[in-house]
Amino acid sequence: xxxxxxxxxxxxxxxxxxxxxxxxxxxxxxxxxxxxxxxxxxxxxxxxxxxxxxxxxxxxxxxxxxxxxxxxxxxxxxxxxxxxxxxxxxxxxxxxxxxxxxxxxxxxxxxxxxxxxxxxxxxxxxxxxxxxxxxxxxxxxxxxxxxxxxxxxxxxxxxxxxxxxxxxxxxxxxxxxxxxxxxxxxxxxxxxxxxxxxxxxxxxxxxxxxxxxxxxxxxxxxxxxxxxxxxxxxxxxxxxxxxxxxxxxxxxxxxxxxxxxxxxxxxxxxxxxxxxxxxxxxxxxxxxxxxxxxxxxxxxxxxxxxxxxxxxxxxxxxxxxxxxxxxxxxxxxxxxxxxxxxxxxxxxxxxxxxxxxxxxxxxxxxxxxxxxxxxxxxxxxxxxxxxxxxxxxxxxxxxxxxxxxxxxxxxxxxxxxxxxxxxxxxxxxxxxxxxxxxxxxxxxxxxxxxxxxxxxxxxxxxxxxxxxxxxxxxxxxxxxxxxxxxxxxxxxxxxxxxxxxxxxxxxxxxxxxxxxxxxxxxxxxxxxxxxxxxxxxxxxxxxxxxxxxxxxxxxxxxxxxxxxxxxxxxxxxxxxxxxxxxxxxxxxxxxxxxxxxxxxxxxxxxxxxxxxxxxxxxxxxxxxxxxxxxxxxxxxxxxxxxxxxxxxxxxxxxxxxxxxxxxxxxxxxxxxxxxxxxxxxxxxxxxxxxxxxxxxxxxxxxxxxxxxxxxxxxxxxxxxxxxxxxxxxxxxxxxxxxxxxxxxxxxxxxxxxxxxxxxxxxxxxxxxxxxxxxxxxxxxxxxxxxxxxxxxxxxxxxxxxxxxxxxxxxxxxxxxxxxxxxxxx
RNA sequence: GCCGGGGUGGCGGAAUUGGCAGACGCAAGGGACUUAAAAUCCCUCGGGCCGUGAGGCCCGUACCGGUUCGAUUCCGGUCCCCGGCACCA
Length: 825
Fold this sequence. Notes:
The chain is α+β, with helices and mostly antiparallel strands and 825 residues long. It contains 27 helices and 34 strands.
């Protein structure tokens, strides 16, 4: 018999699939559609195990759903802009575009070797002008809708990447890409107004029933909604000014004994201008601003404040309290001004003790009498208002409402919802990105590039002699242009867009990748969207997944798409580990998909990666585990190749005996389990183990019937079921075995096998007999025994009878098909 | 600090509705085949105890308690690990 040669058969079937364009997808209103999508990769040039894992998961689903009769779209493309191409450009003296193209070609080849069933006609590349033209078009759409704006603001700057970063790209005060601590710089930059969508992005999370809870919670935390009140204080020394503050505890307003401003607060300079405190305060402000993000946002940093010499007027009691500037108040949240209520906020309490500020109790816990002089920590719980004028005696919950309503009547405040989410900073001071389509004219100001002039193309002749790829400001032919409005001389914006913009809409482009009239053809998008199953790493929980939701909502509002959410179901796959650590070059524990394919074939690699762990959990790589999966595939190969002759025997001569019934029972319950495990639970690991059990059962049958007498039809059903169920996991092997069973057509054109519920039934079942909950015996009984009969049979069981001698049965519980439990005294 | 997720053999993991804990695989040990090796096949495989044996008993799903005829599963509490958020007013 010919032996299993994975490389040969894999190449053979990959060629066949490609020639027949088997995975091509077209609109077909007659069939239910299904959009399977894996997060597209950055073209680094080499697939790693994480890639192999995500593509294996997606491909099982795509192939399974096709066999289930769905019209499946399964596309792939390239998130091709970004910094690594620039670094590689300098290192290898090769232009980012050429480097990227080369990598794409390599990775695409590897994906093909994995046997992933992509519709390559839908491939997209975000760095291609045909694509980024529409990224720019979408930027202009945002601009027209008032969602793109430029402002000077303190922004995160990564000194190593030499560019600004979005908040989402700063992790613990460091750059998400290179881990360098970020600095704060005051720069004029482009932002997208994602905060306008904060409420909807939060609220619609509840619609995403197919998303993992943890991802939704991460987004919820990131958006950070908090309800409170905005309150306007007066300023004693400047009656014409007011000081707005946000608080979640308006019930403590009478307990305010000071006010703290952020160093960046716009009123600070004005408050101290020309006073004796000016120097001290401005020095403090400078010192605070020089600190980096990590120092400034650490809860451990000592809280410092400096008095401005000015006083805020409390709108409810007219009291004047000192205004300080503090290092712990951030300008980006609320109003950049915090009212200090030391009696009822622990941080304020410590601050007040440190600087000798008064502590006034305004909420009394039930049955206690706190005093500001003696309390050892702030009281933050519920209670009754005291020292609060006409609000005395109110429960504090009620007072929150009453006090805010009072302020509203006085024109001094209102209810207010505040979010942690900030606007999305999208400018990048880098070459390899989609240019922001904006022109600056001395006469007309900021002018958007007219749609018909898109794309604003990147200059492709890149200067590679320096230590970094020069930014667009170094290309006079790019910068110098004429104003679309007045025709006069003008300059182009030289910043490019954050690559996360490119990836915020690519799933829409797949629906009509060649479309030239708009980013996508609405009728195609309306047919294919939403993505039914999205698969990718958890690291994008608040980056890509939030941005893509935002873009989709904007497009929905503009009437360009029918869906408000892009991804119905999300699978966040776990990471691949080896020897307890994430695979990395520095740890030397990397196993590359290439070497696995080379040695065992893609089918073995796919099978192992799916078998070793459920997809959402981290996976521990095991060379021996791979070996085991390879053994299994060889076992399947032999089973079918050796057993196929037995499947064509004389049908009528065969007897349907106990062995046949048992084999059919295992085959049909296997079909049930594999189907449900893939479809409902993504438990590919247990689906595979069910197939292994089917294979074991087939070998057992073969041994039992060694002396001839196989039932050809039953045997054929067993072999074909195994091959069909294995097809999504090990597609090449399945094709090969399917054809050797005498079929001309691809296994993927076969309908998914159905199970017969009748065949799952056993005629006899083993029943466990328990006494007081402990297993004391077993018996085999007809499957339809009633509860009463079971109890009687159990009493009659020899060993049980002995144990029951002289004991009284106080209670008997019988579960048909499972057990009998006798409770004795 | 707040919010999630988790803790099961030597290992990866299973137990889907509260019903025999450890499916399936890996590793390990023993055996068959072979001149030998590879490959393949068969057996054992949570711990302890009793028994010559067939077999039997006890313990065991992080820990303590509860509900229940019966708990890996439900409830209360504790410990530990992983992840997210965090001077957020």
